[in-house]
Amino acid sequence: MKPVSEPVKQRLYAVLEGGGADAASRAVGVSLMTLIVLNVLSVVLETVESLQVAYGGLFRAFEVFSVVVFSAEYVLRMWSCTADERYARPVWGRLRFMLGPLALVDLAAILPFYLPLVMRLDLRVMRAVRLVRLFRILKMGRYSEALGVFRKIFWSKKEELLITVFAAGVMLVLVSSLMFFIENEAQPKVFSSIPAAMWWGVATLTTVGYGDIYPITTAGKILGTLSAVFGIGMFALPAGILGSAFVEEMHRRREKSKICPHCGKEIEE
Amino acid sequence: MKPVSEPVKQRLYAVLEGGGADAASRAVGVSLMTLIVLNVLSVVLETVESLQVAYGGLFRAFEVFSVVVFSAEYVLRMWSCTADERYARPVWGRLRFMLGPLALVDLAAILPFYLPLVMRLDLRVMRAVRLVRLFRILKMGRYSEALGVFRKIFWSKKEELLITVFAAGVMLVLVSSLMFFIENEAQPKVFSSIPAAMWWGVATLTTVGYGDIYPITTAGKILGTLSAVFGIGMFALPAGILGSAFVEEMHRRREKSKICPHCGKEIEE
Amino acid sequence: MKPVSEPVKQRLYAVLEGGGADAASRAVGVSLMTLIVLNVLSVVLETVESLQVAYGGLFRAFEVFSVVVFSAEYVLRMWSCTADERYARPVWGRLRFMLGPLALVDLAAILPFYLPLVMRLDLRVMRAVRLVRLFRILKMGRYSEALGVFRKIFWSKKEELLITVFAAGVMLVLVSSLMFFIENEAQPKVFSSIPAAMWWGVATLTTVGYGDIYPITTAGKILGTLSAVFGIGMFALPAGILGSAFVEEMHRRREKSKICPHCGKEIEE
Amino acid sequence: MKPVSEPVKQRLYAVLEGGGADAASRAVGVSLMTLIVLNVLSVVLETVESLQVAYGGLFRAFEVFSVVVFSAEYVLRMWSCTADERYARPVWGRLRFMLGPLALVDLAAILPFYLPLVMRLDLRVMRAVRLVRLFRILKMGRYSEALGVFRKIFWSKKEELLITVFAAGVMLVLVSSLMFFIENEAQPKVFSSIPAAMWWGVATLTTVGYGDIYPITTAGKILGTLSAVFGIGMFALPAGILGSAFVEEMHRRREKSKICPHCGKEIEE
């Protein structure tokens, strides 16, 4: 029986995992991508009460349909993965495949559906479980180059990001503590503690400025001014680092993706 | 009769479409540009009730005057376009000319005026029609190099913009859903659904921070802090990409516009 | 008598206008700079009622002292300017000197003081006149290199700044008009006209977000999101252009200011 | 007795000050770093009343423990510093060591604890003293490279930062004074003085926009728009300067930290 199914399995594995260039792979990829986007949209819209009341049945039906598709996808991936020599051993190979990050995301995408069937969940857990469905968005990682670019950038700039986040944190603690000391007397309810003042610090140094907390004393306003003028630069650094890294990376990809007109392969420089 | 009008037609076409360097072309260009700016100003100010009450007649008169000029411009463009060999055939050539993007904008600039004369419109449509006049601003595209620069930049960076907007969207959905889950209990009216939480997400990640919606629980504030520190970078990327592209493009234009001192033509490098 | 005062005049002119490197010039420059800073501080603090009540006499005395010094400075400049061959003719030379931008600023710095002595001013004009004293800050232009750097940058990037400001303006008009059309029905008081909606547009696209005006309908929030994500880039461009121009300019100055160790002159590269 | 303790002293000095690569130095460094972070956390959380009520004893105990450790560290540093030839003289050497910036920070980290034991402090001073403990965060400067990077950047760009801060200050004064003049009549309570208007100016030009103060007149809104469009660039300059300097510095460090595979030393290029 095995020899019969082997070519089917290999073809299936190539279609599902290859992200290949042939029509079938592309059709499967686009279909799954579309389904994921619709799923995210559905989870988001489901929380709007008026839509839930009006289209609750539709949402539920779509959820069942999605889980059926994603479950089938998962089972087929499990079955076909032995076509890859890395996972060739029927049990251990499949287990190793299951523990890969992408396969775990695939599992997490369907598990929340089956959980309530297996055990009783109270309402709060139920809501959390429903939300976990949103992380189906991470299944996109398989098809989306965009998320890959960002993962790579974060990784290559991790040192710079760590240093800036650390320095920003030190600045936040110092500035917020001072502000707490200055404003606490005038606004004991608002600047009730250093953590409360840190919420002011975050709103100010990121320039979000909701307006729920701000200094009212002259000393507090002077400190607020100094914090803003110097601190905003500190909090803007991660953005600048990511930005320049992204531009560099996109440039590198363009350079790389020059395809040789003779052999059809990419020309590395 | 045709041979008589031909040189007139060619001259007119050159003046209207050439955007040429001779005095007449420039005068026509500047006049139309001024009229467009005044038109936009008029549409904007007309919506201020006190001005509408005081100067309603003036606004109406200016509108009629503008439409007369723009209509004349449109008719003359239609008539003279056959001077261009691309649109030389009297009927099909003119039709092709009419369907060009700039000619469509010209048509859209005058149509709203004639519509109520031809058919009855209810009040809401009437208001929309009046607003459409604002898109006369797009007629500037013919004369303004600035809009051309931006069109080119958007086009050349479309890949980077798409990726960043997509990644920002993914981040927005994840962050807002988490925030909804955290804050919904404490502020059921404000964080009533994920779309509502997304409005918070947009206000925070763009650092606009109107202050109509923000977290009040400790967990929510911690999530808000993390979202702001990391997410602002993501939302600031499109700005950074457009900015560097714009600087590059302006640099390229300057290089290009070096004029040969002997022949008066631009020197391409 | 003239031959006697001539060397004095030349020395005085060099001290006042040279911004030279000798001790006297530097002392005069620093003194005047300090006086200007104290003046600005005084005008600013004078408007705080409690300080005005407590130290009104001091403010007045300092004002009189400042005007005496600035008047003396002005008169001495007028007298000594003929030492410069460009302004050598006693009457016409002095007139030409008086009409230079820096001399006009000097005049504007003292005129507001003498005006009320010459003619009756009503209270509102009086307040305006008092405020004009603040423009003494521009006298710094003579001594401050910083303002010179910015003037040069603004000038060299005027084309880019104009284009971006124009494009930002077009975007602001389009976005605000649409928002007016969408929100006017739900918030007729807040989004009462397109100019009112433009105030929203400015607050949003600059990310200031005071929170006095924002959309509340779903359509308005979607438009607000799109405006923010794409428009912020547009409004951030001038900052980016100025920033990179400033860094370039500072770099150029450093390169330039390499002084030859033998002749003491700058080495141009 | 001295010859016996000498090697111990030298070893201790190396461990405490060397920041060396051997296991003991690293263990001491990591332990002290952790203790500092926990200290900062403790000071921050202590100000939350509910935590103070619940875990007050724990906070106090941890404070005593920390001071014991930091005091021991300080005493050991004092004792061992004579191992360094720069501080070799028992009294004068130790005094010079004590007056170094890092040793002063170490002293400031423990002094607030001993102060109330020595003299009576009123409540307000007591609170200030408690806050000073936060500056233990600066002890990190010894171990953290991140703070060193920032110190270096600030120093190398001090000229650019000074110029931009000065220019931003001039702009702030001019814009705020004008706004005070325009809005004072309509909002005498809010725009009560130029300093009050400067708080508006800071909130606007940094784009924080708390929403506690904003113009309501048409003239004020127009000035606000112009200030925002042009001024934000000015206030964003320090961020841009710091950002590019940081990227440069990190790049330089990477280049530098190439280690020679033969001799184990860094290769300078």
**Percent range of helical residues of chain A:** over 70%
Number of helices of chain A: 10
Alpha-carbon distance between the two ends of chain A:
48 Å
CATH fourth-tier homologous superfamily of the largest domain in chain A: Voltage-gated potassium channels. Chain C
CATH class of the largest domain in chain A: Mainly Alpha
Counting structural domains of chain A, the number is 2
Q: What is the CATH architecture annotation of the largest domain in chain A? A: Up-down Bundle
Count of distinct strands of chain A? 0
* Radius of gyration of CA atoms of chain A, rounded to a whole number: 26 Å
Low-confidence stretches of chain A: none
CATH overall fold name of the largest domain in chain A: Four Helix Bundle (Hemerythrin (Met), subunit A)
Mean pLDDT figure of chain A: 83
Indicate the overall shape of chain A: extended
Class from secondary-structure proportions of chain A: mainly alpha
Which range does the strand content of chain A fall in? under 5%
What is the element string of chain A, with H for helices and E for strands? HHHHHHHHHH
Major sheet attributes of chain A = none
Assembly annotation: homotetramer
